[in-house]
Task: structure prediction
Amino acid sequence: MSSLFSTIKVGGWTFASRILGLLRDMATTNLLGASVFHDVFVVVLKIPNVFRRFFAEGAFSQAFIPIYKSLISKNKETEASAFLNSLLGLMITVLFFFTVAALIFAPVFIFFFAPGFYFDSETKSLAVEMLRIMFPYLALISLVSFAAGIQNSHNSFSIPAATPLIFNFTLIIFAVFASRFFEIPVFALAWGVLLAGFLQLLLQMVPLARIGIIPKIAFDFKNQHIRRFGLLILPAILAGGVAQINLLIDTIFASLLSPGSPTWLYVSDRLIQFPLGVFAIAIGTVLLPNLTQHFANENLLEFKSTLMKGIKLVIFIGIPSSLGLAIFGYQILEMLFQRGAFTANDVMMANLGLQMFTIGLPFFMLMKVLVPCFFAQQNTKTPLYVAILSLLINIILNYLFAFYLGFGHYGLALGSSLAAVVSVMILLMILSFEKLIFISLDFIKFIFKISFATSLMVLYLLAVTDLVNFSIFNGMFYVISILLVIFVAALIFLLASYVLGIRPKDLYQ
Result:
């Protein structure tokens, strides 16, 4: 049950972070609305964030943890320490030169990642200045992820999962209070991002000291494990971040669409990121060290069992979350964001993107479980090839839906969702061919039970949206009514699942 408790612990902290993240987005959209200022903020912030998720959270952890966990599992502490020190030296070197390059060539970064901003002189100037303030956040948060990888390898998950709370809390403070001291309020958010990076890095010192591991900078780039790390991380940069690559493509295309499109896409994605972040990422975070240990110990039965239970847990959460957001997403968006400069039209446009994202939500979540399975075996080539295919599909579908067919921003969300569907199907077929997963009669029964329980929840939500006029509620009563509907929907699904015989031991042990 330790894996279940670890997942619950990570999920709990991530849940708190996502709640605070929604409050952060409420504060920023209230301050700026779906204006060009908010468009620039979300697009420019995504540049260091995407690099962070490629190098730090995605590819880095997928390449680092299997090597480091294998060393400490075999009691090779001296080798593990030398690897950490050398890797820290490598990271600091690469991050320094990459950050300096980004500061110098900021206009080039804007041209490539937000071409729609580049050809408007005022928007370009704003974007370049904000990028130069926020880009050093990448170096800081990459070191945070390095520290988190060490802690996760030692089965310490709480502090890494709680760390994003600092980012969200800092941005709320700057949006609500510090913005009044800036002539252009969006710059308060930019400086808040940078400060949050420093604070998150400082927090990591305590848990590292507690487990007795404080890496020291060494520039031994010839370390044998550094070479292995290099071989793993290069293909993992793509393979570990398919969803992020596709979202980055969405952002590039969104900058070419009408004003407000990046903000609408961002807001709809934020609702999708809630179940994805709270559950799928939590499951994947705990799953990778466990799969790696089973593979290192040549315990194939436990490897298969752990993987299948991870898949079942994601399905248990992903299917009702997807349909629930598809039916009741508009009301949730309205409750969270329709205030200040964010209008009713903005809610309607964001909901169009949300509807398309819900198609891909279960598949985005499954990616967080399936990709670690390959990395636990130190196999980066397979997910790399799948990532490249997904990337090509997403580019083609983005152009087709957003521009050729004229769907705009929600065409980008549809393209990302369909690309994720294709990727997951291919990965499942490969794992099935390798006999690492199999469709048993129990699994088919499980799917039918989940489908029936979800159907009851869907009928309830359809009845509520048809019969209840939420506009009659005001203020806190409106918020309570929306939350009550969500609570009852979740309760119906969970009770139905329990009556049908689904138990926690069926999902994770």
